[in-house]
Amino acid sequence: MRKKMLYFFLSLFSCTYSYSQQHFSFTVIDSANTNSTLTIGESYFQQEFGMKVKSNSVACKNNMFHFVGTIEHPTAVRIYFSGDKRYERFNQFFFIEPGSQEIVIKNGEKGLYIAKRPATKIENEFQSFLHFVNSENIDSILEPEVLVSYIKKNPSSYIGLFKLIDQSFMHDFSNEFNVVKTLFDSSITKTKEYQYFENRYLKQLNLPSIEVTNDVKKKIRIDLSSSGKYTLLVIWFNDCLPCIREMKQLVQLNKDPEFSSRIKIVHVSVDSLKFINENKATLKKHGVTWENYWDEDGQQLKKHIILDRYPSSLLIDDRANVVAKNIEVEKILNYIISN
């Protein structure tokens, strides 16, 4: 029989405020006798979260895996089989908390399933959360007002915070989420996770100018506050197909006088300067008539923002305040009119 192993990874944070490390124990009972490698990991592994990976597996006995460790507060984890195609569709998500908890895996007509979930306060809230948002799993994209409504009713919810960060990072940050800074209580706002979210998405950024390189390879500073207009700063690179699709959308939108009279578009390529001619050819091919500059690898831009997706965009008002990030281009004009 192949030796069974279970790998356990937790996202552990060192908070700015003092949170006591509390012990937990976690047991997985494999009643399905899969004889496979089971992996448990936090839902996203991002360096910005200050994550520390911890593996505390104890040798498997009687199809049972046992882990012990410390966590500061409830933590999101996934459980799935790795390296075994028979069970590749098995992917379960739950929360653990300080104290003892146990899950049981069984094999049914439709394959593996969780026969017993942890009987904990955080797991009970998780099931209530799924019912509230009318979803079968945590991965569904929620309407912003639904998530905000849940947080308003549950201001000390780690689950609300987790979903807020997860959806903003994995998909798009909605400007409707700005209100959460007034909704969470101090047990949440003191955590490093919330502070990361606040710094990344909620803090007002003022960006009056930025250093770039022009098409003759000269470094210049460009003004991003245009009198009486908004500036849409778009960050792209030549082999980025979504960037090209957005570029073509903007060309069409800019033909509308109502759009062009309110918004000045500026493109900044993060390509190497050796690709200036290729970038120029792309811009010409798609009918771009506004200015384009270069910032190799986003070196200057990264001093002000986190670049983790392309295209990225900033909508900047005439006082140089960044009022929206990565807004869908077809919604830009309505956003400006309504604000």
Per-chain topology:
Layout: E1 6-8, E2 22-30, E3 38-41, E4 64-71, E5 75-81, E6 91-96, E7 99-108, E8 111-116, H1 121-132, H2 144-153, H3 158-170, H4 186-189, H5 192-202, E9 205-206, E10 209-213, E11 219-223, E12 230-236, H6 241-253, H7 257-260, E13 263-269, H8 276-285, E14 292-294, E15 312-316, E16 321-325, H9 332-338
Parallel strand pairs: 1-3, 2-7, 12-13, 13-14
Antiparallel strand pairs: 2-4, 3-5, 5-6, 7-8, 9-16, 10-11, 12-15, 15-16
Provide the descriptors you would attach to this structure in a database record.
9 helices, alpha/beta, Immunoglobulin-like, 16 strands, Glutaredoxin
Q: How would you characterize this protein structure?
A:
The chain is of the alpha/beta class and 339 residues long. The protein folds into three domains: 6-117, Immunoglobulin-like; 127-203; 207-338, Glutaredoxin, CATH 3.40.30. 25% of the residues lie in helices and 27% in strands. It contains nine helices and 16 strands. It is elongated. The N and C termini lie far apart (65 Å). 28% of the residues are buried.
Return the string of H and E elements: EEEEEEEEHHHHHEEEEHHEHEEEH
- How much helicity do the residues have? 10-25%
Cα(first) to Cα(last) distance is 65 Å
Report the C-alpha radius of gyration, rounded. Answer: 24 Å
Class computed from helices, strands and strand pairing: alpha/beta
Name of the CATH first level of the largest domain: Alpha Beta
According to CATH, what is the topology of the largest domain?
Answer: Glutaredoxin
Strand content: 25-35%
> Taking all residues together, what is the mean pLDDT?
82
Low-confidence segments, given as residue ranges, are 1-19, 43-59
By CATH's scheme, which homologous superfamily of the largest domain applies? Answer: Glutaredoxin
| Strands ordered across the widest β-sheet | 9-16-15-12-13-14
User: What is the count of β-strands?
Assistant: 16
